[in-house]
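Hi support team,

I'm opening this ticket because the web form for multi-chain structure prediction keeps timing out on my end. I have pasted the exact lines I submitted so you can reproduce it. The total is 778 residues across two entries, so I didn't expect it to be a heavy job. Is there a limit I'm missing, or should I split the entries? Thanks in advance, R.K.
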Amino acid sequence: MDHRHRRRPRSAAWEYLGAGKRSAVVDLDADADDAALLRSAAGADVVLLSFDGDAERARTQQRAERLRAAHPALVVVVLSGFGLRGPYAGYRSTPLVDWAMGGHLLLNGEPFREPIAGAGPWSSYLGGATATIAVQAAALRARFSGEGDLIDIGNMEAAAACHQWSITIYTHQGVRKTRWGNRHGEAHHPLALYACTDGWVVIGAVSRHQWEGLCIAADAVELLADDALYTPAERFDRMEEVDAAINPFFAARTRAEAVRELQEHRCPAGQVLNLAETLRSPQLEARGFWAVPDGLGSRARLPGPPFRLNGRHLELGPAPRLGAHQEVLSR
Amino acid sequence: MSSAGTDNTDGRVRRPGGIDLRGVRVLEFSVAWAGPMAGRWLGELGADVIKLEHPTSRGLSVGENMKADPAWRRGDLPGPALRNGVFPDNDPGEHWWNRLGYFNKINRTKRSLCIDIKAPGGREVFEELVRRSDVVLNNYSPRGVRSLGIDHPTLRAINPRIVTVDLSGFGATGPEFDQVSWGPILEAASGLADATGYADSGPYKQGLAFPDAVGGLHGTVAILAALWERELTGEAVHVDVSQLETYLQLGGDLALTTSLSGEAPARHGNRGDGAAPQGVYPCRGEDRWLALSVTDDGAWTRLVALAAEDGVQTLGGEGRATLAGRTAQHGAIDAALAAWTAGHDAHELMARLQAQDIPAGVVMANEDLVHDPHLIERGFLATVDQVDAGPLTFPGFPIHFEHHPWRVAATPALGQHNEEVLRWLGYDDAGIAALEAAGTITQHPPA
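Hello R.K., no limit was hit. The queue was backed up. Here is the completed structure from your submission:
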């Protein structure tokens, strides 16, 4: 359901995130609409609420508690930047702010420049995926016990839960993790991007045989004479020396040539594709990954579901027009 | 050794804070990050997760290199020989395989059965476990799955209600199904690394193997969906998860606009369409930053007033009252903002901005997260008594159920639950000793 004050024109985000849903518009500040929401929740298994800022937090908390009191079997999920409680609970949030507060932003970009975020509202998507897990688990229990739940999820925590060893190297060793540009800190090299004549490739020479394959393919066999460089973290400490030896290989080849030669030497490698190229990926095409949304033209593509159950795709319907299913409120 | 707290009446672990999946047993074959993450989430939701570990899965002993470095001091990056292990206090100790920080972070709230299922008697143990389990999860390559005989047709023949999960890099089918799938390789294939970067730069990968985290999350979603499916049909379910496809879930709107325009998205650093100014600005101290998004004109007015309190008069200006105007002057606004923020502590400035209802946040380092009052009050950080290591703190679980507070158990020692699991399966002393003698089960990696 969409709040009356948040109507937006049709957008790419709406088409993506609204796929397979129905739409009703309510004014949560109006008593009649609020009552209609409470009533219509009787036919629902799950109610998902979100808020931003302190004023909305208080109202959302009250609404969630009313819903739970009226419908004990209902699963109510509240998704926000920082959660319903805690010192930042009333803070305003955006995807960039959540990404920064979750500890990911600092780790990306050049060491000598400002950190940079990924290409999208990724903290919001992490929060959404986390909420999906919570809903599935709580709904499974509600199915058998008849007992619903109130679930509180903050994007900051959802992001903080998705660190590799960033937090662990601090709690275990006191090490402050930072960013390393297109290299992968701190224990492996080269697991990195390199510039070719027509773009970039990524390589992952982590194991002994992958390192040997890289050095042979890149005509940098002199590196193999140095036993210390067989340790991936030693290569990380001497990344400038390593990269100086292998960069000429990439600089003289196209992406396709570099990847082919590296793979022939059992060194994992791939082209850095732009999104237009990814849309033409034979792998994704063969798996029927892309969904074709209705009404947006034959070229339009959206990501389909990322998993198959017994080989079946889960079909998604189109995103609805705003308020197209207003009748759900009258039930 | 600490215990996960078990009750052997039916062989299931009684989790102190199990939430919703009590009664579900998961067998986990997994390495690296995505598969273990999915298993850990299921464990923390209450499932009984048994991690089947090959004796070499935590590594081989490498002799002299595994000795503590006396010159190391807390805060220093460890030397190359020990760095990969993330050992507590950079000390591998006697049982280094139970002190691997990166491993212990991602494998807690599970049981460990250290078994080579290709060794004598191993297959029989595994098949009996499959008969008594609900889910078999792997994140091996499709070739590895077939080699181990843990593919869906084989396991369905053993247990007609089994849920099998292949969580692979590119999916179980397609021309690239067996390619190596390190996280950065998946990022590159997704098109999202190319879309990430400064406006004047080439593409950028993430600083950690982010597709593994995204794959682990969506893998958990997929497993729960499969349990629902089985509940409805009563039959076995095969789940095929592609980490590449999970990663592309982060770029749905970008994919749509690219498909319609034919043009790959431009890189624009930290800027976005719905906010101006939006960016990351320097603060006092080394590598300290503040993220700021001005999402409406009122927030802009309040920001200008706040900066003026500090004597900064260059922020407001003609034509900046609207989003379009600020977007057109974004570079000049960034320079004025940076001149202001550089003299301030990031945490203090965040608090002042948020008090004015302006979205702003400290660009947190790992140390900030560990000491952050918000995460501490919400109980996000988890301290567990880690086997062979003692109490250690790890990131916790981000879902807060009203009536079911989560708790976590430490990562098990290698093979910690060998005997417990085997006795539950009906093995006696002689049977267990025979498996040990054959090298099928162990609690130590081979030298």
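A quick check on our side: The mean pLDDT of chain A is 94. Let us know if the file doesn't open in your viewer.
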